[in-house]
Amino acid sequence: MKETLKKFREIVKNKKKIESTLALIQWDMETTVPKGGQSLIAEIIGDLSLKSYEISTSKELIELLDVLNENKNSLTELERIEVECLREENEKLKKIPAEEYREFSELTVKAQGIWVEAREKNDFNIFKGTLEKIFEYSKKFAKYRNVNEKPYNVFLDDYEKGMTIEKLDNFFLNLKSEIVPLLQKIKEKKVNFIPKNKVSIENQKKLSKYIAEYIGFDFERGVISESAHPFTLTVSPDDVRLTSRYFEDMPFSSVFSAIHEGGHGIYEQGIGSELKETVLAEGTSTSIHESQSRFYENMIGRSKEFWFGICPVANKYYEFIKKENLDELYKEINIVTPSLIRVEADELTYSLHIMVRYEIEKGLFNGEYTVENLPKIWNEKMKEYLGVEPVNDSEGVLQDVHWSCGLIGYFPSYALGNAYSAQIYMAMRKDLDIEQLLLNGKISKITEWLHNKIHKYGKSKTPQELIKQISGEDLNSKYYIDYLKEKYSKIYEL
Amino acid sequence: MKETLKKFREIVKNKKKIESTLALIQWDMETTVPKGGQSLIAEIIGDLSLKSYEISTSKELIELLDVLNENKNSLTELERIEVECLREENEKLKKIPAEEYREFSELTVKAQGIWVEAREKNDFNIFKGTLEKIFEYSKKFAKYRNVNEKPYNVFLDDYEKGMTIEKLDNFFLNLKSEIVPLLQKIKEKKVNFIPKNKVSIENQKKLSKYIAEYIGFDFERGVISESAHPFTLTVSPDDVRLTSRYFEDMPFSSVFSAIHEGGHGIYEQGIGSELKETVLAEGTSTSIHESQSRFYENMIGRSKEFWFGICPVANKYYEFIKKENLDELYKEINIVTPSLIRVEADELTYSLHIMVRYEIEKGLFNGEYTVENLPKIWNEKMKEYLGVEPVNDSEGVLQDVHWSCGLIGYFPSYALGNAYSAQIYMAMRKDLDIEQLLLNGKISKITEWLHNKIHKYGKSKTPQELIKQISGEDLNSKYYIDYLKEKYSKIYEL
Lengths: 494, 494
Prior knowledge:
Two copies of one chain form a homodimer.
Chain A: H1 2-31, H2 38-56, H3 59-70, H4 77-94, H5 98-120, H6 124-145, H7 151-159, H8 165-188, H9 201-215, E1 222-226, E2 232-236, E3 239-244, H10 251-269, H11 286-300, H12 304-309, H13 311-317, H14 326-333, H15 347-366, H16 374-386, H17 412-431, H18 434-439, H19 444-453, H20 463-471, H21 477-491
Parallel strand pairs in A: 1-3
Antiparallel strand pairs in A: 2-3
Helix pairs in contact in A: 1-2, 1-3, 2-5, 3-4, 5-6, 6-7, 8-15, 8-21, 9-10, 10-11, 11-17, 15-16, 15-17, 17-21
């Protein structure tokens, strides 16, 4: 057994190193590579993906996993979970032929370049054929993996174990039936707001960095950089990378990106050191990940108390932020304006953007929609749920990078993450006086709570286990809906 | 034969891809990685170096090379050169045991972190033990490779084929005997100059980018980024990366970095496309590389005509640059001030900095010096040749990254590059009216000349072949000495 475990650890180490290399190359692709280098980097990513696939499906690993599984009783609990986790991954991957896996990896890397071009030229037709291929591969892979399951369910389950179309239909129906009327009432109030403050990019960078550090992001084990779309990428828990973007006339866009990505980053950096050498050293699901980023962004970052706590520093870089103006600031950063771009959406309408994407993915899988018609379908849904309609594809169907990366079934995580964040927030309130801590600048107590209840476990507990342990019940969208209704009724005096 | 060539091309492709991956990771290490990620990235670089070593010394490749070598006559000229080049590399590498090769790769990556710390803390003792190890490995490797040769010659030959201690002693003696007295005369003139112009970093970035593009750097196939020390790194000729650094009160530091690194970059981007899939798609030697960067930096960038040609644009970003001030500007950018830091050295004293390093490397190999005593030796030599003495190790022996990277025997390339650049400049003058082209903003004719005489050949011609073809003779330091004497006698009215 000792020898088996030793061999197992070696393979895992190798696998993790390939994945870290892949992460480093992906980081370069997102932040640096010039146009001329794109095709080579695509090939390198293809090679590394294949390599990682080969390790995960190698006969050697499978045999080791079988032996370890048969001798479960002599394993520690963490080892058991790790073995189970790898067995599952293996089950998923081995059904996809290696060559097709590689083709798909390369396709999605190239697709990102094509998507960028389509968006720049504002022409869905440039991207259409590629997107069709991505969905074709996805359908094929879903069939390989589970011929008896609805293809879309196969992918939903990847991101959130046990998630199904049925559950999500129900989830979004609840949200829709509450948020759409609430939004209607807010619109009737006809509150208009035109942001007027400009802040130099240098000062925005300083405040963003300060806030990331303040909420607990460790710059000895992480960096913040720039990219067209903010994201977080983990090379290892000791090397976590955030990006943001800066516009002089939108001084809060960068700050909220820093808080949001900082939330992701703190999660990754907070993974327990006992997991470091295992495959469990990552976030447990995209939804829980999103719950952390959105918790910091919305529950913390969009509260008056947070800004009160950091007011002296914020004022150094954003002169207009003053203690006597915080009521006004609070309204500004919580303004509800149905808009076209998801990443700039306010907290209330955000989930409606996700619903549009969810329904489209579902429709593409069940044959109701075709890629060809997506721009039209997109625009219709935006009009129906949000009351706004894109005038071109860049601010419509072409706005998100996800599909070009082959991330199908990922979008619902954002909405589920919102729901998780509210449920976690309500549970935290029972233990901590959040408002008082923020007023006193003691945010570290909040991060510590999350660390002990979520971060440190990495992937060793499922989302279901975590939320049950934290709140005593399963994920329940009621908390999120109540939170939104209470907050926005107050702000808009409904 | 067709089958052999096909297999050969596959291995070369694979080897090049590993090297590009390594370049991407090295770029990350130099520009991005946080402290926490350093040890993992060091391990990844170690793995990839080993992998590249394994390919280069693989039985499969050696056998193919033997077959190709035996059938030379059915190869094209380029194929013959490529085979020869790989056979030589193979000869060098195979004598070093794989495990030691890997150890040395990892050592040098870690050494860079240690060197950074030593420099920050201004304490040579932190770095001493590591540097000793690096020189020990180097001595051992030299013995493995050629037990009958002086160890330092083995490394000199790596960077410039045929280079020896004897030749370099002679080369530096010539330089020293001319430059030191010239410098003495200039010092006696007691011209003092305190730069007074500040330029915002944003504007410095704009002018740097403009100039890089103006001299011919293609931003579709390259990027410019920031790092503590400017450098150029090639992922492929279609992905060439420069860095620079910016200080508000030293507005020319960034610009000359951009021109210098731009010169390296243009060389790499200009390599003929017929070489793209071969191992010949890189600069032929570090000296020729340095000749290109220093040609642009000194012969072009420090000329009055260059600034006249770009004056309208330069004035947009650097307001004080005006046609009526160019005489003054010319003096400012050609001021001679013996100083402590090589990368900030003026054109005249630069080679003296190199001489210090050359003599130290030579002395470490022949047993005259020990690592222990380096700070003292360094300071003495600086005083003797330049008349200035460091007060701490950071501005003395700890200033350069090279030794920590294991680059032993590299420094002389800088001085040889200077000599090449002057010889090339003199040859170019026979074909082109350089001053007139610069006055008219037609620098592209100059870059085209270099492209056709040097860049396009990549590694398919040796430095010796190139300089002979260009100037009709071997490298001759006379051109460089004449150039310096003429230029500085005029500026300082000697």
